[in-house]
Amino acid sequence: MTEQTTFPKDFLWGGAIAANQVEGAWNIDGKGLSVADVATYKPHVDQKDYSVHLKVTSEAVEKAAADATDTFYPKRRGIDFYHHFKEDLALFAEMGFKTLRLSIAWTRLFPTGEEEVPNQAGVNFYKEVFKEMKRLNIEPIVTLSHYEMPLALSMKYNGWVNRSVIDHFVRFANVCYDSFGEYVRYWLTFNEIDSIHRHPFTTAGIIPDRSGDTIEKDIYQALHHQFVASALVTKMAHEKIPNSQVGCMLTKLITYPLTCEPIDVELTLKKNLENNFYADVQVKGAYPKMILKDLKNRDIQIEMAKEDKKILKENTVDFVTFSYYMSMAESGNPEAERTPGNTVLGVKNPYLPSTEWGWQIDPKGLKISLIELYDRYNLPLMIVENGMGAVDIVEEDGAIHDPYRIEYFKAHFKQMKEAIDEGVDLIGYTSWGPIDLVSAGTSQMSKRYGFIHVDADDEGNGTYNRSKKDSFYWYKKVIETNGALLND
Ligand code: BG6
User: What is the pLDDT of residue 341?
Assistant: First the structure.
């Protein structure tokens, strides 16, 4: 086996989870309610209509906030990582994980977001997690904000629309750096910052009926506040934590023209430019001129403080990370068939198969994305989410055979290797949901991503016992051989 057949030395193989989708313990040890704790169960049959994410109402939020049970809110249960983290980390270590991407629930540290001092029990919990990771030699990559802002900030201020939320977030980040900086070198600011357009409540605590007609403007205003907050906490990490590396995080939604008819190509180009805009701001430190013109054409004025331009310019990120699940097509034909993707409806690509949730499987799209992003930004890249949601069958003997998952990963890893061989500086890969968890979009447990099975159903019934799927042993081998296994 020669070196060229494997991934780069020190390649960060691992997995990614988010606090709100795994921890459970939603009301334990002083934790406050987050926006995730009021997310209801939305099975995949509804997913052709993503507008459901734009229809969150004040009434529904208030009703959910007053409900002291977890019956309708699966993220309140998660997979009980809060009490199982040692066992779960041990399983990740057994697979050979070099890294684990995880997030810190803002509401464990600041239950309403506005406290002056953090909740010590929350700080202690994450310290235990990081200590255990250190013991197991698993490098943490921490997302500060992954769809879990304090519900109190959402209800009081309509979330990130209000500029004061920046200060609360900076205070939260400050505590994270002071408390966990000795363990954590890699930080990501906002998960899929672009998703604010697709689900403004989940991403930024915006309750659409409070915005009413100004929803478009409010979304851009909130996004601007997140850009500024991201730059401020990037600066703070650099000042406080020696050798810290801060990354942005983008949903890579690559789009192809359905045909070579010029209108399809133009619409596609625009979609891709829009998708890159968010990383452009965080990498280049300024809004792209064409985005500013577009906002002007649409009469959307973002209120910017005098210092914002400078803050953005001076505090750009060190590396670029992204999630990649699927690709889609675009067409000028309004009749073109559409299919669901990661909270988007794209035009169906006739050349690609889909998952049971309709997401189009496209390993080559991952390579194309890597080349495009590296050429555009010239910064190290990390794929921090990738995987397929599937229904798994537990056999009578407890085994779970998931060849479809192995096939999915194998095809994607091969494309990653090709991109690296062609010059892309890809430094790490964390699969999404290395252990089954609650879906962000649908709150289902039955949409499973893991190498590790969790015995829990959509209603929260089950033992919550962990067991290994076939893919567990396969991924372990991939890591062990640093990808050489893929040549077989
Ligand atoms: C990403 C999110 O968009 O997609 C994750 O960052 C999410 O939180 C993942 O879980 C997969 O989406 P879903 O809806 O299948 O959970």
Answer: 85
Of ligand 1's atoms, which has the minimum distance to the CA of residue 442?
A: 14
Number of domains the chain is built from: 1
7 in a structural domain? no
Residue 303 falls inside a structural domain: yes
- Phi then psi for residue 14, to 5 deg, are 180, -150
The counts of H helices and E strands in the chain are 16, 14
255 lines ligand 1 (CB under 6 A): no
pLDDT (tens digit per residue) in 353-409: 999 999 999 999 999 999 999 999 999 999 999 999 999 999 999 999 999 999 999
Q: Pull the structure tokens for residue 218.
A: 């409010």
Tell me the two tokens of residue 311.
């803050």
Indicate whether residue 355 lines ligand 1 (CB < 6 A). no
Q: Tell me, yes or no, whether 1 lies in a domain.
A: no
What proportion of the chain, given as a percentage, has pLDDT over 90? Answer: 94
Cα separation, 212 vs 425, in Å, equals: 44
Tell me which DSSP letter residue 469 carries.
Answer: -
Residue 466 lies in a domain: yes
Q: Catalytic pick from 385, 396, 459, 480? A: 385
Cα–ligand 1 centroid distance for 217 (angstroms): 25
Evaluate if residue 54 carries a pLDDT over 60: yes
> Residue 374 belongs to a domain with what CATH number?
3.20.20.80
Looking at residue 203, its pLDDT comes to 97
Cα four-point dihedral sign 387, 446, 444, 349? positive
pLDDT tens figures, 117-149: 999 999 999 999 999 999 999 999 999 999 999
Q: Which residues neighbour 354 within 8 Å (Cβ) at sequence distance 6 or greater?
A: 339, 360, 361
pLDDT confidence band for 2 (50 / 70 / 90): very low
| Ligand 1 centroid from CA 397, angstroms | 30
pLDDT band at 4 (very low <50, low <70, confident <90, very high): low
59 belongs to the catalytic site: no
Q: Range of 279's domain?
A: 12-487
If pLDDT is split at 50, 70 and 90, which confidence band does 470 have? very high
Ligand 1 atom closest to Cα of residue 447:
15
pLDDT > 50? residue 1: no
Q: Is 94 a catalytic residue?
A: no
CA pair distance 168, 383, nearest whole angstrom: 29
3-class state of residue 479 by DSSP:
helix
Query: 422 with 374: CB under 8 angstroms?
Result: no
Helix (H, G, I), strand (E, B) or coil at 130: helix
Render 235-298 in DSSP notation, one character per residue: HHHHHHSTT-EEEEEEE---EEESSS-HHHHHHHHHHHHHHHHHHHHHHHSS--HHHHHHHHHT
